Automatic annotation (TrEMBL):
GO molecular function: DNA binding; DNA-binding transcription factor activity
Entry's transmembrane regions: none
Keyword match Protein biosynthesis: no
Alphabetically ordered keywords of this record: DNA-binding, Transcription, Transcription regulation
Family classification: Belongs to the LysR transcriptional regulatory family.
Name of the protein this chain belongs to: Transcriptional regulator, LysR family
SUPFAM superfamilies: Periplasmic binding protein-like II (SSF53850), Winged helix' DNA-binding domain (SSF46785)
A Pfam cross-reference name: HTH_1
InterPro entries (UniProt xref): HTH-type_LysR_regulators (IPR050950), LysR_HTH_N (IPR000847), LysR_subst-bd (IPR005119), WH-like_DNA-bd_sf (IPR036388), WH_DNA-bd_sf (IPR036390)
Any one annotated GO CC term: cytosol
Keyword Flavoprotein applies: no
Amino acid sequence: MFDTTIRYFCEVARLGSIRRAAESLNVATSALSRQMANLEATLGTPLFERHARGVHLTEAGRLFHEHARATMLDLERVRGEIDALAGRHRGHIRVCTVEGLIGDLVPDAVADFRARTPDVTLSVLTDGTAGVVRAVADDAVDVGFAFHPQPHRDVEVYQEAVQPLHVVVAPEAGFRLPARPRLRDLINLPLIIPPDSSYGVRQLIDGVARADSLVLRPVLTSDSITGLREMAARGLGVTLLPLPSVHKDVRAGRLRAVPLADANLRDARVGILVRRGRILPPVTRAFLSRAGLLLAESSSTPAP
């Protein structure tokens, strides 16, 4: 069917490689290559520029890709509407989340939703905040969960909630902290933070550091929330994370979390993201509704 060809074309365009797209789609590379060549012959123009490292869209390819993505999304939405009319709740929802929410909010949302709609499948990927925003903007996923997402013209914040940053330390580490520490109080302590501003936590920290003319000299960096948490738990330094990322360890007495007093760090937010202007299928809208309720509950839950 033509919708299969469109789906295959969109995957090649997304990955920039026929070989990687074939692996993703679980089809033979030679078969996918022939299908793309047949599509170009049907349209009477090259859609890809082929080179040693993969493929790039031509100008005609970019135009076709724009319409192909819209067609794919329309087909998905119409199928969902037809299923809803027939009383069926089927489909597949693609989710991308920052790692800090994979231990609690996102699994809770998935479990809650699956209990109500067992015929709907979901895939959950993790990335940094910038990667989540990009995946939503590119229609690579249907729903994104991100910490402190930056505005993007193609991305809409469906719902957000305040999740303040906390100083996270091992209770026995011996680091002296004020009752309401500010970032400037941590400058002379061994800092453990994300490596760059593609991570929402680092964006916030860097913003406060610039405003207060502070120089950050982290002793350890990690692109993994688990890595940040575990290094802090071993007494190697202090890290800064939202409470949902560490609350189980805090309850177990393995870590201590102290709220930061800096206004921008107190007002940090978690957002549920969708692509602006996209009409979502009924099952995706239902998932968003459940996830939004859980996000609101998590932001109103007192610290342990």
